[in-house]
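Researcher: Structure for this, please.
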Amino acid sequence: MFFIDTIELEGLGNRSYLAGGREAAVAVDPPRDVDQVLAAAARRGVRITHVVETHIHNDYVTGGLELARLTGAAYLVPAGARVSFARVPVSDGDTVTVEGELELRAVATPGHTPHHTSYVLREQGRPVAAFTGGSLLIGTVGRPDLVEPRLTERLARAQHASAHRLATELPDETSVLPTHGFGSFCSSAQAEGDATTIGKEKSVNAALTTDVDSFVARLLAELDDVPAYYTHMGPANAAGPAPVDLTAPAVADAREIGDRLAAGEWVVDLRNRVAFAEGHVAGSFNFEADGKLATYLAWMIPWGKPVTLLADSPEQLASAQRELIRVGIDRPAAAATGAPQEWVAGGDALVSFPRSTFAGLAERGTDGVVVLDVRRDSERGSGYIAGSVHIPVHQLHQRLDEVPAGTVWVHCAGGMRAAIAASLLHAAGRDVVAVDDGFDSATEAGLTVVTG
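Model: Predicted structure, token format:
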């Protein structure tokens, strides 16, 4: 008998896996906070004997090296990956025994990266699951443009070939267990569903239902923006990430918070966007702890700039720290928890800005105000409010001077990114209204939405 446990990394849209038998297990693409994997192994009562990477990741810092060090496990990394640490190089066809008749077989599946390798879990010689990393995902494949622009088309063609290799070599009932594709920007398209098999993918995955030229043309045309912090992830993983420190940051009082703002550092309020709009420290930015905190904060903050975190509770702060170390933001400069009134010095007041909906915008009318759309280019392409200005949220901090004069009604697709943008604008001294609403409501509210 075997088991496969899934470790969700919801904020980044990824999954890691622990698979094994009665006594031994293998960890696949582990997150940097390896205590999760160790806890999963402890619950199963198994020893981690192997840690495997499907590729050198571009979207998060791996915990593989540290997990192997802590457990004494063999650390398997694709042979083609250039790394600066000792590891067991894995080539196509290599097989390792996990326990008894449970084994893992490496299958070269280039495309997401040139060295990408999938791992097929076999029980008594029968394939039962494929850990496909950034190769074959649920209904799509991993994007091929994260390594080198000159390699993108070649890697896209390799993705098609790799998907077909898996579909040809594995039985239809084999579970497909990807690392990416649950909201990750490493996915070439939005994946739908929670589980899949080789047989299902044969009927729904474009890589398996269209010819290579059509597949590549469509894949390249639909590629989305790449988060800026991806630039730092590959080198960090190739060098060998340092162990993490999840102890609480130094506590900042109101005076220190003000000093850090005055020094040009980032002070990030993790509370929900409703609470932030109602009252916050002037100059602070709102990145909700319950949103895609790691993705958007790491995407937008100048790399290496000190960040101070403000949270509702120690629990919220600890969760945020865990999210951020996964993308290389290792230690907040300082932090504070509690009520926002405690974060301002005596005599200073909290500041606020209004929130509304698309119906509220329609009632007010768009004349005389700036309607700012902070969605990505791909989203705006499906429709936008007539006369709106477009600056994606991840570019806004560098393009604030491009926002026309006047009160800014800022919107995204659902409200979270609009809140981030509103906080940036408000910190810059602009009058702002955050539209906290789904974009589908724009047409229903009577606003003119341009399509096509």
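Researcher: Any notable elements?
Model: The CA atoms of residues 281 and 350 lie 5 Å apart. The longest helix spans residues 152-169.
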